[in-house]
Amino acid sequence: GPAGSRDLLDRGTYWIEGPTGSRDLLDQGTFWIEGPSGSRDLLDRGTYWIEGPSGSRDLLDRGTCWIKGPAGSRDLLDQGTCW
């Protein structure tokens, strides 16, 4: 949300940040990540990736979601709860 606030999304529904901060709703169980030059890669249902250092990708266990915290730290979110 505005100024870095967080909005709780319903379990199984995920959003991504679009151009100019807009959000696009993705279908339940379908996940996208931002690829090079703004392209999007479709990830399999129930599989989550995050961008790691130097653009590397780390695979997260099914149903476990991470977010980027201050100074690049990572906070683990409860299964099925995404911010």
UniProtKB/TrEMBL annotation:
It comes from Argulus foliaceus. This is Uncharacterized protein.
